[in-house]
Specification:
Glutaredoxin; 9 strands; 6 helices; 31% helix
Length: 179
C-alpha cells in the first residue's frame, strides 16, 4: 500500500510522444499527477482521460505535471489516443506488472475478447517535487474515480495553505496514539 508522506515508487515508461517519462526527473512547481488507467477496452477511461485532457491548462496553471499510463502496448495506447480524440495529454504505455504492483494497483483478468489477459485497475496519485506521495487513490473497479475538476478545486487550498498530506499513519501508529 502506498502511504502519503513516503517516497513514491519508481516509475519510468515510454510515451506516445516518443520520449521516456521518468518520475525521478520530473520537476513540477507543485505536484506530478499520475493517472493509471485500464486501457483501450475501457469506455470509462475514454471519458476520464478526455476530462483530464480538457483540464490540462488548469493543471498547468496550478503547477501540476500530468501523465496517464496503462499496461497497454504502444499499439493499443496509440489506438485509444486516436479513437478517444486525445491530442495533448502525455500518455505512457507498457506499464509492467511489477511497476503496477509497486504502486499498489489492483489487477483484473479479461472477461471479454477486447480486454488484455491481465490489466491494472485505475489509480490516481499526486506526488510532490521531492518525490513524496501526497495523495493516493486506488480503485478495484473501473468506476468512482476522482474527477479532475474536483481535484483542481482543492489545489488552491492545498498549495496556498501548505496543507499536509493525510492518511500517513499505519494502524500501529494509530493504535499507539489512541492508547
Amino acid at each position: 500500500m502506498i502511504t502519503p508522506r513516503t517516497p513514491a515508487p519508481e516509475l519510468t515508461v515510454a510515451t506516445l510522444s516518443g520520449s521516456v517519462w521518468s518520475l525521478a526527473t520530473r520537476s513540477p512547481q507543485n505536484f506530478t499527477f499520475v493517472a493509471f488507467y485500464r486501457g483501450l477496452h475501457c469506455p470509462i477511461c475514454s471519458r476520464h482521460l478526455k476530462a483530464i485532457e480538457t483540464a490540462l491548462p488548469a493543471f498547468a496553471e496550478k503547477g501540476l505535471d500530468v501523465l496517464a499510463v496503462s499496461m497497454d502496448t504502444q499499439q493499443r495506447a496509440q489506438e485509444s489516443y486516436e479513437k478517444w480524440g486525445l491530442s495533448s495529454l502525455e500518455v505512457g504505455y507498457g506499464l509492467t506488472l511489477d511497476q503496477a504492483e509497486a504502486w499498489g494497483l489492483s489487477f483484473s483478468a479479461s472477461i471479454k475478447d477486447s480486454e488484455p489477459a491481465v490489466f491494472s485497475e485505475p489509480g490516481h496519485f499526486l506526488i510532490r517535487p521531492n518525490n513524496e506521495v501526497y495523495y493516493a487513490s486506488v480503485q478495484s473497479a473501473p468506476f468512482s474515480r476522482p474527477s479532475p475538476t474536483e481535484l483542481l478545486g482543492v489545489m488552491d487550498f492545498v498549495i496556498n495553505n501548505d496543507y499536509p498530506a493525510r492518511g500517513e499513519l499505519s494502524s500501529d501508529q494509530a493504535r499507539a496514539i489512541v492508547g
